[in-house]
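Reading a protein record of the kind used here takes only a little practice. These numbers are not coordinates but entries in a learned vocabulary of local backbone shapes. Here is one such record, which you should read through line by line.
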Amino acid sequence: MKKLLAALIAGSALSLASAASAADFSAGAPAAVYDWSGFYVGLQTGGGWTNARDFSAIPVTSYNLNGFMLGAHAGYNFQHGDWVFGLEADVNYNWNRMQAIPGFFLETPWDASVRARLGYAVDRTLLYATGGVAFTNLVIDRPMVPTRINLGYTGWTAGIGVEHAFTRNLTARIEYRYTDFGRTNPVGMTKSQALLGVSYKF
């Protein structure tokens, strides 16, 4: 009985020693790190909250053009260490037509941007900031007259986001962006966007 107990103890000790040795080897092995470098394309959706201010009115009159949006993006990332540098362009279609006064409608049917991205990668998760130039078009529509005026805008945009790679090729992101389109004749516009996106990285 004593010999059997000693054999069991010796066997258990050997098993534990082998497991510890294997754990040490695994801990010492280099872990695979995700590489964010490369071209990518994707789709995005979310909400946009646009504020249009008519500076010709006294007092200044504000209009809120809020609605759903759907768009596409494409870009390129270059990773150096934990830092990721990128350039991205996107275009979105907006559903935000609103009636300012009876028979007088406003909408920004599309917006677009070209932006730089700077991110910090924690393996498959990327925390990033983005900023650049943005474009949109304000449509002033009076169908009863009929009159339709198109005003083009160019401004700046900046935002932050987090992106995660679920596979080598598929990533998803959450992003917030603020845009100041400036003033055009005499309407000024700003916009906030909350976006969800998916990308395919080549």
Summary: The radius of gyration is 27 Å. The helical segments are 2-28. The longest helix spans residues 2-28.
